[in-house]
Design brief:
It is a single chain. The chain is built from 14 helices and six strands. By secondary structure, it is mainly α. The protein has three domains: about 100 residues, Endolytic murein transglycosylase (Dna Ligase, domain 1), CATH 3.30.1490.480; about 90 residues, Dna Ligase, domain 1, CATH 3.30.1490; about 130 residues, no CATH class. The strands form three sheets. Strands 1-2 form a two-stranded antiparallel sheet. Strands 3-4 form a two-stranded antiparallel ribbon. Helix 8 packs parallel to helix 13 and helix 10 crosses helix 11. The longest helix has 21 residues. The radius of gyration is 28 Å and the shape is elongated.
């Protein structure tokens, strides 16, 4: 038999098999309820077929694999959490998986959240177990695995390195997958800033992110972020204590509107009233504006700032100017 004849026979057989599969509904008997199926990221067609068969979405995993092969969609099945209606045909199931129509939960994680606060919000949305999420977030080397960058080696946690954003998560998605998604988003946003920043070159990535987290928590107006960053960098260069109230609040484990003298004496490496330099790590998740400000701060001589009460700050170069500003804005005069 010639090559052309063999090809024709193979094509006819393929068409017959495809026609048989498409023409038969392959509806699953005795299933009257929707079936939820989690398709993991990176799952093979074989794994997907077995998950669908186990859930009663299809009744023959082998035929499913054959159909996807003949239809040329083996590499097009999308991960996610799906809810399949009862009695779908093989063709309908594959069409859903190729289109990608997973049920998702949208969660907005704003700038300035700590790991504990992120865990609370994800747990409230029914996406993670808080304890498991924090356990993974406090073990970067295990959780990130091969994605662990050199600049994060030695970090005690992923505090500050899970990017604040609006995410669409799939119910059933693992805590590790969620962390990886947020960390990848951080890298996508942060890494373009690293190469051109003198601050990063001087202090390193982790300390840059730590500075950005302080800017995020001290500032209210994004327009002031570059100026606030300059204040802390000026103090670092002069070996002055940063005296950031935000770092004390992190050490206390709560956000207090007014700190007492006792609060300022809390024994913690994060208390920048007692310890020189930047704290051991970030105190929250900085957003893009804070990261940019810390990477490229405004050039100033300011060493102090005080809140005006309207979200903005008064900046000073000398302590006497600072005391005058404090008296003006804190006394209301």
């Amino acid at each position: 038999m010639g090559c052309l004849a063999k090809e024709l026979v193979a094509a006819v057989i393929a068409l017959l098999v495809l026609g048989f599969i498409v023409g038969t509904s392959f509806a699953v008997a005795n299933r009257n309820e929707p079936a939820a199926v989690e398709i993991p990221v990176g799952a093979s067609t074989t794994q997907i077929s077995l998950l669908l068969e186990d859930a009663g979405v299809i009744n023959n995993a082998w035929l499913f694999r054959l159909y996807t092969k003949i239809a040329g969609v083996q590499g097009s099945l999308q991960a996610g959490h799906y809810e399949f209606a009862p009695n779908l045909s093989m063709q309908e199931v594959v069409r859903i998986l190729v289109k990608g129509n997973p049920r998702t939960v949208t969660v907005t994680l704003r700038e300035g959240l700590t790991l504990a606060e992120i865990a609370d919000r994800l747990a409230s949305a029914g996406l993670v177990n808080k304890s498991e999420f924090l356990r993974l977030a406090y073990d970067p080397q295990y959780t990130l695995g091969a994605e662990m960058p050199d600049w994060l080696v030695g970090a005690r946690s992923l505090e500050g390195f899970l990017f604040p954003d609006t995410y669409r998560f799939a119910p059933g998605q693992s805590a590790r997958e969620i962390i990886l998604m947020m960390f990848r988003q951080f890298r996508a946003k942060a890494e373009p800033l690293i190469a051109e920043s003198e601050v990063v070159a001087k202090y390193g990535v982790r300390q840059w992110v730590t500075l950005a987290s302080i800017v995020e928590m001290e500032g209210k107006l994004e327009a002031e972020f570059p100026v606030i960053a300059s204040v802390f960098l000026n103090r670092l260069e002069r070996r002055m204590y940063l005296q950031s109230c935000a770092t004390v609040q992190y050490a206390l484990g709560e956000r207090k509107p007014v700190l007492t003298e006792k609060d300022l004496q809390v024994q913690s490496p994060y208390n920048t009233y007692l310890h020189e330099g930047l704290p051991p790590g970030p105190i929250a998740s900085p957003g893009l504006a804070a990261l940019k400000a810390a990477a490229n701060p405004q050039k100033t001589n300011y060493l102090y700032f005080v809140a005006k009460g309207d979200g903005s700050h008064a900046f000073s170069t000398t302590y006497s100017q600072h005391l005058a500003a404090k008296h003006k804005y804190e006394s209301g005069k």
